[in-house]
Amino acid sequence: SVDAVLVHSGRRRKCGWHYSGRDTGQLNSREAPRRILLACPQRIGDVLLVTPLARSMKCAWPGVDIDMLVFEGTEGALEGNPDIAQIITVPRRAGIVEKFRQLRRLWRRYDLAGSPLPTDRARIYCWVAGRRRVGLITDTSQDRSKALLLNQYRLFDDLDTHTVSMGLRLAETL
Known about the structure:
With 174 residues, this protein is α/β, with parallel strands linked by helices. 31% of the residues lie in helices and 25% in strands. The protein has helices at residues 44-60, 96-106, 120-129, 141-146, 163-172, and strands at 3-6, 17-20, 35-39, 65-71, 86-90, 110-115, 130-137, 152-155. The strands form 2 sheets. It has a 6-stranded parallel β-sheet with strand order 5-4-3-6-7-8. A two-stranded antiparallel sheet has the order 1-2.
């Protein structure tokens, strides 16, 4: 498997990815994505808990544009964040026509889309928006079938691991 390790050197923190192991079709330094979407259609606390993942990705790929998709009303938590290029808001409830418009606007616009929380809505947005998709799933038979929407996934541990750490583990799939 490919191991991703955040590298630190000297006094100043230098961010970057180091890869070792065989090629499994995962991203490597030559294939750095240009555009990433982090889909977090959840409440404001969950949106805040995803920001360390955005920071880690921005450190790894300084030239990448990271967009976040969030519910209307939670975008204020991200305003002014230098790691986020664009905040895309979606309503919590929308009619079927509006949902299709949202999905059509997102269709395959991103090199990489991530679902940092194990929700169906986030996985669907990732499947629509990303040419490559990564996400978290729970260890249930129902969720394992939903992993088909993702190219790669990690198991979500909501008992022994903090949500921020789980989000950062998502970066290990890259």
